[in-house]
């Protein structure tokens, strides 16, 4: 394990992650709304355009803090554990086990799996409200509608309805995102600290995170489009999507492969 590695206590990570998550999500929520509407099968304007860009913000606020807290708490907790396991598995100082990138990627993936337990249902409800889906006039009516969708297309639909219909694809989006973002974020900070000879400031760390997140967001945009369509449930004709593969095939055949990049600009900004 690198001597430059620093590990944050679990409680501090939990609190800081929760506060950071809700602050970012609420501040940038309009950008997320524009992104989601641009990915709607009904088109940007029909999904709401630039109107009521804070629609669904209560759903985002309810899930933001716990999902972010789960991610950062798990991420910071797992980093030293994984580093220790890798070090025990290979005592050769010249081996790749001393490269922290794999540790960061693995810890981030585990963190995402935990966070998506909250983020998946939150994204489901939020997406319905952001795109003005039928029956999504209020948070309670949207939640009731989603829970009533016991059509077998989501994990545990007999109990949770459609809340976890997008869990798998959300995880498939978040894990590659984390694989790209967090090693880059950690590397950017290390290089900046080497260059200036002392620790990065909060503003500098935020800048590193912004660049890393923008790159990761751009690369994973196609997965985000698939996630949005699967969560919204059906195409513009009302024909239900059967799964992620069905979404991809129908998008490419009916709308062209360029549709997989819809929402790229706001996703990078977000």
Outline:
The protein is globular. The protein starts with 9 loop residues before the first helix and ends with a helix. It is built from eleven helices and no strands.
How many E strands? 0
Largest sheet: none
Report the total helices.
11
Distance between the termini: 32 Å
Strand residues, percent: under 5%
Q: Give the overall form.
A: globular
Give the topology string: H per helix, E per strand: HHHHHHHHHHH
| Computed structural class | mainly alpha
Level of helix content? 55-70%
The radius of gyration over CA amounts to 20 Å
How much is the average pLDDT?
Answer: 87
Low-pLDDT windows of residues: none
Detailed description of the structure:
The chain has 270 residues and is mainly α. It has helices spanning 10-27, 29-38, 57-89, 100-130, 139-147, 157-160, 167-196, 202-219, 221-232, 244-255, 264-269. The model has no long low-confidence stretch (mean pLDDT 87).
How does the SSE layout of this entry go?
Elements: H1 10-27, H2 29-38, H3 57-89, H4 100-130, H5 139-147, H6 157-160, H7 167-196, H8 202-219, H9 221-232, H10 244-255, H11 264-269
Helix pairs in contact: 1-3, 3-4, 4-5, 4-7, 7-8, 7-9
């Amino acid at each position: 394990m690198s001597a430059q590695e620093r590990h944050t206590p679990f409680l501090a990570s939990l609190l800081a992650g929760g506060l950071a998550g809700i602050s970012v999500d609420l501040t940038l929520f309009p950008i997320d709304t524009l992104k989601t509407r641009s990915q709607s099968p009904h088109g940007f304007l029909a999904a709401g355009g630039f109107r009521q860009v804070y629609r669904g913000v209560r759903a985002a606020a309810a899930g933001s803090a716990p999902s972010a807290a789960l991610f950062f708490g798990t991420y910071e907790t797992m980093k030293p554990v994984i580093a220790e396991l890798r070090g025990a598995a290979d005592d050769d100082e010249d081996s790749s086990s001393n490269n922290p990138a794999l540790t960061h990627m693995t810890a981030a993936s585990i963190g995402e799996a935990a966070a998506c337990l909250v983020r998946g249902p939150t994204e489901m409800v939020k997406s319905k409200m952001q795109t003005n889906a039928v029956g999504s006039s209020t948070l309670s009516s949207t939640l009731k509608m989603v829970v009533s969708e016991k059509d077998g297309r989501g994990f545990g639909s007999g109990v949770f309805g459609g809340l976890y219909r997008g869990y798998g694809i959300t995880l498939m989006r978040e894990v590659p995102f984390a694989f790209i973002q967090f090693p880059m974020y950690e590397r950017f900070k290390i290089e900046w600290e080497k260059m200036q000879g002392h620790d990065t400031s909060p503003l500098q760390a935020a800048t590193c995170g912004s660049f890393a997140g923008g790159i990761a967001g751009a690369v994973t945009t196609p997965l985000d489009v698939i996630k949005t369509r699967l969560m919204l449930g059906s195409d513009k004709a009302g024909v239900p999507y059967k799964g992620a593969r069905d979404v991809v095939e129908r998008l490419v055949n009916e709308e062209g492969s360029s549709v997989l990049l819809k929402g790229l600009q706001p996703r990078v900004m977000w």
